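Work package 3, deliverable 3.1, input record:
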Amino acid sequence: MTDKTVLTQARPNPARTVLQKPWLWAYLAATLTFAATSMIAGSDAGSLFYAALTFASFSAIVGIGQMLVITLGPGNIDLSIPATMTLAATLALKFMDTQTALILPGLLVAIGVGIGCGLVNFILILLLRIPPIIATLSASFLYQSLAIWSNRGLRIKPPESLAEFATGGALGIPNVALAGIILATGAWVLLERSIAGRWISAIGQNLRAARLSGVPVNAVRFGIYVNSAVCAALTGFLLASFSGGANLNMGTEYMLMSIAVVVIGGSSIGGGNSNVPGIWGAALFMFLIVSMLNSYGLGAGIRLILTGLVIVGVVTLASRKGYDA
Amino acid sequence: MTSDRLRLLLPMMSLAVLLGAVFYLQPRAMSYFGLNLLFNLAIPVALATIAQMMIIMVNDIDLSVGTFVSFCACVTATFVHDTPLLGYAILATAILAYAALGALIQLRGLPAIVVTLGMSFVWGGLAVLILPSPGGASPEWLKTLMGLKTPLIPIAVIAPLVIALVVHLLIKRSWVGVILQGVGGNERAMERAGWSVVRLRAAAYGLAGLFGVLAGMCLVGLTTAADANIALRYTLLSIAGVILGGGEFVGGRISPFGAVIGALTLTLAASFLSFLRLSPDWQIGAQGAILILVLAVRLLFLRKEAAA
């Protein structure tokens, strides 16, 4: 599996990657759409920026989790993110039962659900040797059922002070964005400045070589899958607090979002080469493109079509290799 | 060949076990009418699974099958019903678009998973444009075809098997299929042998588009109406079906009969719970659990095979 990828995927030449930081494109695209939205459509730039930061932070947090999973190499992907988000949000909000005193334990419940989901995913992948796509997919069916069962179609409200925190901000930056930036910084330090980060990339570039050179492969993979589920759980917790409650469809769009921000952000979908800043750029871009289409007053159908075409277009333009392999 | 047979044995056994359990719980299901009801929606699911199989055959994965089938269903319930010529033209264009996507993915070395994820928005958007609210009507001939009263065994059981046979002949018994599987097995070797991988990938995607269109049409024939979200679940069901049926994500290792049996198993899993009188909340969960269970058993099988 890994041998084949090394053959078919031309690695970008190192000098070129230094000159052209892959994440630059994501920020460039985000800036352009921002300008197009705020100037042509005439919406207020300040509030647009604030909204973009808020919504982008949800995509960014799940994106960080997904990015680390994708870094592990071909075939590694977490499709259980939407279900984990929904399950964590539902159980945490139900546990808090709108009581302010239970916010911290509630957060721990969400994180606990994340760890649990990550554990189940990894057990399926390691012990049953199920390909990650199918393992996370079938596990997500279970999480979804659990969420449906415990939710009962009700909209569970978050405690008021938590909702205030999630919708509020400090120093002109939304609180959720602060959380997202802190997590992104942590991920950057982990990936670029720590041994564990080298291990992650090494596994993605060549699993066998990494194993032979003494990288604790399974421990790293375990950490990454649990981390992805915890990121998803945290996003679910924040999103439910922000939008006034958990509902069963809250995670749906984050399946695409988590993968799209990784790829548009300039990480290699084949693994082994990721970058954190791109996640935020791509997350901002993904929100801005939708709000741009919205501000032009386009209907839901057209908006969906254009969003899809933009994703395909960006991926096509951003592909750093032509057919010369 | 023997290992191929072995691979098929497991999905067949899981289907048999599940079917046995259903008959045990509800003996009345063991009839013409009961079987028809049990496998009612199996035809479109089987077709969608075959579509996914074509993509997995060339080492890609298609996350837009569900929205594409929904789109085709919407076209069938509106344009094909009202202005057949235009309707078929749209469906033909959709197949060409699928083939073009395959070529694009190969030409630019794009990740199929992202391209198809993006395309799922496009198909979904088009479906919403065509049918903003549920409605439309099935063309008469489709309704008649789907409601056909075949002797002895209901059409819901016969049709998937016929589909599997046709695809089996195409993929496993013809040169076209061998070459297409070769793309999944070793793309470079195919290229060195003088084949245009761009064209081959386009062909595989085109075939996927064709079966997606057929799935959408059959679905409308069964439900007699459509809406933009009618088949969203098919994306996950189709991937699960292919893998359940013994397919692998890499290496062009797929089995048409396996895929169809996988689709039947998942369809049955959904109705199994209602026979158990369990809450429908757990329906999706049961499909997940069955999937995990079968894959766990498969692991034991393969270990034995490797040891022998």
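Strands of chain A lie at 169-170, 173-174.
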